[in-house]
Design brief:
Low-confidence stretches: none
Order of helices and strands: EHEHEHEHEEEEHEHEEHHHEHHHHHHHHH
Oligomer: single chain
Distance between the termini: 77 Å
Strand content: 5-15%
Helix content: 40-55%
Shape: elongated
Mean pLDDT: 93
Number of helices: 18
Number of strands: 12
Structural class: mainly alpha
Strand order of the largest sheet: 1-2-3
Amino acid sequence: MTVVTRFAPSPTGFLHIGGARTALFNWLFARHHGGVFRLRIEDTDRQRSTQQAIDAIIDGLKWLGLDWDDETIFQFARAPRHAEVAMEMLKQGKAYYCYTTPEELEQMRAAARAAGKPMRYDGRWRDRDPKDAPQGVKPVVRLKAPTAGETVVQDKVQGEVRVANEQLDDMVLLRSDGTPTYMHSVVVDDHDMGITHVIRGDDHLTNTFRQLQIYQAMGWELPAFAHIPLIHGPDGAKLSKRHGALGVEAYRDMGYLPEALRNYLLRLGWGHGDDEIISTAQAIEWFDLDGVGRAPSRFDFAKLDNLNGHYLRQAEDASLAGEVARRLGVAGDAQLEQRLAAGMAGLKARAKTLKELADNARFYILKRPLVPDDKARAHLAATALQVLKGLRGVLAGPQSWNGTDLEAAAREFAESNGIKLGQVAQPLRAALTGATTSPPIFEVMQVLGREETLGRIDDALAGG
RNA sequence: GUCCCCAUCGUCUAGAGGCCCAGGACAUCACCCUUUCACGGUGAAGACACGGGUUCGAAUCCCGUUGGGGACGCCA
């Protein structure tokens, strides 16, 4: 049997981090089994679905590197099929028309609340003769759900979960305007799409009981269910827009790499022994539902940062330089991009995100004369400038321009002047980068080149 | 409120009755490396929510308490 999974977001907002993880798990599971991963846009809520959200979700998945098979399914387009199935259930006596008005429902809800009981539709049209139908009320179609016994889910993550059927009421399958409800369309679509494994958020666990009843009414084969725990914010509460429920594009903008986010999301709720750094290829090989934890987890930027730093150091200098150039607004300037690439070795060990990388790299693309920050200015006092002036004399000579030789020359200069290397290096750093922290300064000199280096030193000497 | 789920260091987790006075990773702290800051290395501190069982033996099984979360729509 070929494994078929799906990711089924509703396009009412961006692709948030929880959805991204759900998509990742479905994708990994399908790829692990050599199966099929499908995308279904659940756009049946016409009020809230937007093209913008659809684009954001698709862009997010693409950025994350989660490719799906076959064409994208749009749920709304399948409304006729959903209605058809409801009619079939009607014909088989598995469903019935219900003429209860929204007002009556509201009364029911109010009464239930007052009695401290959960809202349950009372089934008043369940066995009533349709001839009693009031004039002018468009009916909904409700499932004739079992009233006794219990419904049991065999969940691949949560284990066996059961609920008494009296807890469940006759849910609406088709609204009075003939459009399907979520519960109904999900089941019909999952069945028609041949989904074998429904992997989704924990928040759907209790929905599953009702969906199971639809499968049973239609006599359809059940898919396997796996409900993965939700991701919470740093404070343990449900992820809200205030803290962390950002779209994946926000993570991209913050400078996270897709491979780092994949690795982080994978480890959030899934484990493989003590392994932490897990490549995507390795993840496909290892991923299974047994490794999924059952407790909700909290989103931790510190760990994401650490992982991102790891993948950053692993990344190609040239592509990193391209991204940094884009962020600094100098993309396309071959000379600067080349300079950034040359400086990347020292730069990338010092950054956790692309944003930080770009910030740290800015001094490489700045035009002379640099404006040193306050701390750097403190290293450019009169005595320091004397040192710089002396060093400049050495550098102006026949000096080979690579980091190692430059360092040797600086060390020799410091020694002959009876000062520490740091007393030479810090003023130099201040002059060349305008800051007090930077990649190794002799590496910086090599990357900047002789002319630019001497120019920046002259600027500092003149500025003092 | 009703129903359902969950519970190991601050965080993510390993742990499927003895290998655990609980292992790893991130974060924190200290030291080393060092021209700055990082990276890297070494080390420290830090958890089985609580109470009952079951068992020769429980982080692991059962029950309860507490705490967290989710679902209760003609939203998805």
